[in-house]
Write a structure and sequence with these properties.
The protein is α/β, with parallel strands linked by helices. The chain contains 14 helices and 16 strands. The strands form five sheets. It has a five-stranded mixed β-barrel with strand order 2-3-4-6-5. It starts with a helix and ends with a strand.
Length: 479
């Protein structure tokens, strides 16, 4: 999809600045169409000259390694602005604060003393920290449907799965003093290779600052400025320790406030992610194209979502969690799971920081994507009923298929070679009685909802692997 088509399909209805294609990194943006509309507004109001020797600046604080010096920028997602020098260290405002500062221009003392050049700096005479709530003033970012359509137009998967992956970019604010963000664990069978391609695409859409945690400072005019640790995304086959830190301990070793993770999981890590997904059919496909074409629109959408932290009362949380815990118990009974499956580290987790919290996080993410400042218990229940529980049910089914296949045929049989819909159909309609011929190809095709020629190809592979046999011509039984 070229730039013109990108604008026509996804730009005009969202934001006049949503129509630029570029691969720029978030902290290297400086002007024009690289910025969001709300950043341009801040840039216009960034400075005001008061007298011939003094000016007033309004912006966001970035701490530096240089003593008594901060960088003030028009946006928390920019590292271009003006340095501010404070006489007393106790006066330095907190990192990330929005302040108004008045002062006169000087050369930055630290660099001047070391003969490292002259850099314009404001000597702070007075400053005040200001409250900031722009959510009612800025252009609404793309809705979840628009974001999903932009990202996954050339990806063949159910729309509900696309929406879940889109939530990763929207993320969710921290709650209960625990890290925010969203995590998704994918149990893939037939589409494992394609999932890796999708994860690579999702990661490359983002600029480096959003997909790496190694660089903590950036050199600006000779000064090392702290890079904000707000949000990042990881995807792919991740170590168990990384998933456990974010999904169980609710902390990020790299110090980010929000972390979105999309991971291929196994039996030991599948219980950890908040939103489980099962991608199991051969119909799944991806034509990724060039991820750089999507980078700037997605970047501007992601940083705009960060401005909103939807509120939720403890009363709403309690009501929502009670509903989730009841549904979890019903789910456990319907699958015949052991009682200890509700303990931390198993496929269900009734702890307040486990699956129930996942519903709260998802509801807040949905609110962000809808640009709503508040969520209720109904929103939490809806997040569970419409997204989390269906995903969890399918995830458990896939896990049971894998476990059953291992016990039947051993670990050497690779389920990703088959379409799981066909395997499910066989498990359902094969009576298991001795002496019966088993279902026909047409019966399997009808039950699975897969074309007969595709069923025939899969059945032949399963026969070659010793998973099924053909007791009568055209009839099939599971071994």
């Amino acid at each position: 999809m070229d730039a013109e088509e990108l604008v026509r399909k996804h730009g005009s209805k969202i934001d006049r600045l949503f129509d630029t294609v570029a691969s720029v990194d978030v902290f290297q943006r400086q002007f024009g169409a690289e910025l969001t509309s709300w950043e341009l507004k801040f840039q216009r109001e960034f400075s005001e000259r008061k007298t011939s020797i003094s000016s007033t600046y309004k912006g966001f604080v970035h701490h530096t390694k240089t003593p008594l010096t901060i960088l003030l920028t028009p946006s928390p997602w920019m590292l271009e602005g003006i340095f501010v020098y404070f006489t007393h260290e106790a006066d330095i405002p907190p990192d990330g604060a929005f302040i108004r500062v008045k002062g006169s221009s000087i050369a930055l003392p630290y660099l001047l003393q070391r003969n490292q050049g002259v850099v314009k700096t404001i000597h702070a005479q007075e400053f005040e920290q200001q409250e900031l709530d722009m959510t009612s003033e800025i252009t609404t970012p793309p809705r979840l449907k628009e974001l999903s359509a932009l990202l996954f137009e050339h990806v063949g998967m159910p729309n509900v799965s696309k929406k879940i992956f889109s939530h990763l970019y929207v993320s969710s604010p921290p709650i209960f003093e625990s890290i925010g963000g969203l995590t998704t664990g994918v149990q893939a069978i037939a589409s494992r290779k394609q999932m890796k391609r999708l994860f690579t695409f999702m990661r490359q859409v983002l600029p480096p600052s959003f997909r790496t945690s190694k660089k903590a400072h950036q050199r600006i005019h000779g000064v090392h400025v702290r890079i904000p640790r707000k949000w990042r995304m990881e995807s792919g086959s991740l170590k168990s320790s990384k998933l456990k830190s974010v999904c169980v301990k609710r902390t990020d070793p790299a110090g980010f406030q929000e972390v979105s993770i999309a991971a291929l999981t196994n039996s030991s890590t599948g219980a950890m992610p908040d939103i489980p997904l099962a991608i199991s059919t051969e119909d799944f496909w991806i034509e990724s194209g060039n991820p750089a074409e999507y980078r700037l629109p997605i970047l501007k959408a992601a940083i705009t979502y960060q401005l909103l932290s939807p509120r939720v009362t403890q009363r709403s949380i309690n009501a929502g969690l009670s509903h989730v815990e009841e549904r979890l118990e019903l789910l456990r009974n319907s699958f015949g799971l052991e009682s200890n499956s509700l303990a931390r580290g198993h496929i269900l987790d009734a702890d307040v920081l486990g699956r129930p919290l996942s519903a709260v996080k998802l509801a807040r993410s949905v609110a962000r994507a809808s640009w709503k400042p508040k969520i209720t218990s109904s929103d939490i229940k809806k997040a569970w009923n419409s997204i989390l529980e269906p995903a969890l049910k399918e995830y458990i089914e896939i896990a049971e298929i894998k476990e059953d296949a291992t016990s039947r045929w051993g670990r050497d049989v690779r389920l990703e070679n088959y379409d799981s819909r066909i395997l499910r159909a066989l498990q359902k309609i094969d009576s298991g009685k001795k002496g019966t011929p088993g279902p026909t190809l047409e019966e399997i095709s009808q039950e699975a909802g897969v074309a007969p020629h595709k069923v025939a190809q899969t059945l032949q592979r399963m026969k070659d692997d010793g998973v099924i046999y053909e007791p009568r011509l055209g009839h099939y039984r599971l071994v």
